[in-house]
Design goal:
The complex is a heterodimer of chains A (316) and B (307). Chain A is mainly alpha-helical. Helix content of chain A is 79%, strand content 0%. Chain A contains 13 helices and no strands. In chain A, helix 5 packs antiparallel against helix 10. Chain A is flat, with a radius of gyration of 24 Å. With 307 residues, chain B is mainly α. Helices cover 71% and strands 2% of the residues of chain B. In chain B, strand 1 and strand 2 form a beta hairpin. In chain B, helix 9 runs antiparallel to helix 10. Classes of the chains: A mainly alpha (316), B mainly alpha (307). The interface between A and B is large, with 47 and 46 residues.
Chain lengths: 316, 307
């Protein structure tokens, strides 16, 4: 039964990916001009235009072009960038690694911090400590990422001269230099993601704390710390895994801003450049990678909550 | 004498009527009591709304005037006037640009949120009332759009269509209508199964009457709370796009693009990038604090849970 639920959820996730690909394809092919015209310029004769259209497959109906595009994408052929004519796969290659490295570091740092702080705040509900954590995180999630980044640049780079204000990498620096270059974008993303995660962890634990078996434990006289760590925490693991996956998905929009502000050579920066030069094949490929990652992370979150909640395992 | 007694009686009746208001089955008066943090937040939001309304008339300079002697100056005066917050990278007065920018940032976001609400509530209530394949159809499309990061959707649309204010408003409205739709549909479904709707139906009231007199008034409060949250998201969305250089285009001023333009000034110790960022922060934090205050004290929890 549980297996069936999980499989059904995975099937829905797959269907979502297909719909996403349709949205990306449609949105980027309703462009008024056509690619052949852009490539050949104003001086093109009708014959050469028609020839290039046939070569690019532009004379086919939209659904045929969609399937061809999807097939190419699935087999790893991401097409050719309009600017410069390099293959998109070669443009994306190293950039993808950079973005994944950043996301990995952010996850490694922010997950333990957030769970610890969320637990800590939940253990002292209503105290000034809890209230200040709640206020700070609420403020942090209501400001744009670039606000946090700008203030950090002002403090850490301009006033204190501790860190460089751009994440410039040459590719042959040692670990310490790499960390120094990455520090600013990392700190920004950790703050952004942690604020959200702390709030959700706290809410998750407090939610469990309202259940009857916790009341029982309190009446039995179990010490508070033990109640949270032994009774509440294990039952909140499901929601917390859910929170982690959701927030890693949230990183997708965070990296777009942070990579731009610190000129970090990642996938999001590449995509923004693509949007600015209206390099649609490049935008399509990047959008599919980001949206695919996002859908998979949300899927993971849902499966985790199905697996951890016995009541969800049995659909009514 | 007789007149006096009638007057006295009238008074008595009136006094009795007054005491009826105190009876337990009289509906409790709805009054919003805010904490001092909430009141401060209301003042901040009201301040920015006033700036949006009268900004261009009180700004010391025009947003596009280059009256400063040089770029990235600290606060100082010259023969044209005083630059209270210094000048930006082209020597324009930062304070005036923030005042003009309020119109773009808050104005565009407000219009987009209103459109999102119009679309989301209409479709949501329609789906809840009609049900069946209409509900199925709208909900599936809605889920697909909700399954994508908002900034990605914005980037895809702008890559295809370019950036202009109508496109920004339309994109933000459609993207955020999806979450409004979900809330409106859930609220509508909850209300449609209540006894008073059943009673109205039995009386023979039409669908439109039920929507107008039963569903909308009962959904109003949670939706109003959610409006604040949605507005914050739209402000963040629009200013993030502007920050990326893909939103409001120069030379018009917008808080997001002002941060981008003046970022390089940070290294010379200029605060021209900090002020507009701070303006966004005060506005969004204040709205969130109000929403937090209101939902802690009233039944707005549903909207909060569904975010």
């Amino acid at each position: 039964m549980m297996m069936q639920m999980v499989l059904r959820r995975i099937a829905i996730g797959f269907a979502t990916l297909i719909v996403v690909s349709i949205i990306v394809f449609l949105a980027t092919s309703i462009l008024p001009g056509d690619v052949a015209q852009i490539i050949l310029g104003q001086s093109a004769t009708p014959e050469t235009l028609a020839a290039l259209r046939a070569e690019l497959g532009m004379d086919l109906p939209a659904y045929m072009r969609y399937f061809a595009w999807l097939g190419n994408m699935a087999s790893g052929d991401l097409g050719i960038s309009k600017a410069g004519g390099a293959t998109i796969a070669s443009l994306i290659g190293g950039r993808f690694g950079n973005t994944m490295m950043m996301a990995g570091f952010v996850a490694l740092i922010s997950i333990p911090i957030s769970i610890a702080l969320g637990l800590w705040a939940a253990m002292h509900p209503g105290t000034w400590l809890d209230r200040s954590v709640t206020f700070c995180t609420l403020s942090l999630i209501s400001v744009p990422e670039f606000f946090i980044a700008t203030v950090l640049v002002l403090i850490l780079a301009v006033e204190l001269h501790w860190l460089p204000s751009t994440a410039y990498m040459t590719g042959d620096e040692n670990f310490f230099q790499l960390m120094k270059a990455l520090a600013m974008p990392l700190i920004t993303l950790v703050i952004v993601v942690s604020a959200q995660m702390i709030r959700m962890t706290r809410a998750g634990i407090l939610n469990v704390m309202n259940s009857p078996y916790i009341e029982m434990a309190i009446l039995k006289g179990v010490p508070k710390g033990r109640i949270i760590l032994r009774h509440a925490f294990f039952n909140a693991i499901g929601p917390i895994v859910n929170v982690i996956a959701l927030n890693l998905a949230y990183l997708v929009s965070g990296v777009v801003i942070v990579e731009t502000i610190f000129a970090y050579p990642g996938l999001a920066k590449l995509m923004i450049d693509g949007v600015q030069t209206r390099d649609l094949p490049l935008v399509q490929a990047c959008a599919m990678i980001f949206c695919g990652t996002y859908v998979i992370l949300i899927l993971t979150a849902d499966v985790a909550s199905i697996l951890s909640n016995p009541r969800l395992r049995q659909p009514k | 004498m007789a007149e006096e007694t009638t007057a006295k009686k009238e008074e008595e009746v009136l006094a009795q009527l007054d005491s009826f208001a105190e009876l337990p089955d009289a509906p409790p008066k709805r009054r919003l009591k805010l904490s001092w943090v909430g009141k401060l937040a209301v003042a901040v939001v009201a301040f920015w709304l006033v700036i949006v309304a009268i900004g261009p008339y009180i700004a010391p300079f025009h947003e596009m005037d280059m009256d400063g002697d040089d770029s990235f100056l600290d606060a100082h005066s010259n023969e044209y006037g005083t630059f209270y917050l210094g000048t930006d990278y082209l020597g324009r007065d930062t304070l005036s640009r923030i005042i003009f920018g309020a119109r773009n940032t808050i104005g565009i976001s407000l219009v987009a949120t209103l459109f999102a609400y119009l679309m989301g509530i209409t479709l949501g209530i329609l789906a809840a009332v009609k049900g069946g394949w209409i509900d199925m159809g709208i909900s599936r499309v809605n889920d697909a759009i909700l399954a994508l990061p908002t900034i990605m959707l914005g980037l895809i649309v702008i890559a295809a269509l370019g950036s202009s204010i109508p496109i920004l408003i339309g994109t933000a409205a459609v993207i955020y209508a999806t979450s409004v739709f979900r809330i409106a549909r859930a609220l509508g479904q909850d209300i449609m199964v209540q006894d008073f709707v059943e009673a109205a139906r039995a009386r023979g009231e039409g669908v439109w009457w039920i929507i107008k007199s039963e569903v909308l008034p009962n959904a109003a409060m949670p939706l109003a709370t959610d409006f604040g949250l949605r507005l914050v998201f739209v402000v963040l969305f629009i200013s993030s796009l502007s920050f990326l250089g893909l939103g409001v285009q120069p030379p018009a001023s917008d808080w997001g693009s002002m941060v981008r333009e003046n970022l390089q000034g940070l290294t010379y110790g200029s605060y021209a990038a900090i002020w507009p960022a701070l303006a966004i922060a005060t506005f969004t934090i204040a709205i969130n604090l109000i929403v937090d205050d209101v939902s802690a004290k009233s039944g707005g929890m549903l909207a909060k849970k569904m975010v």
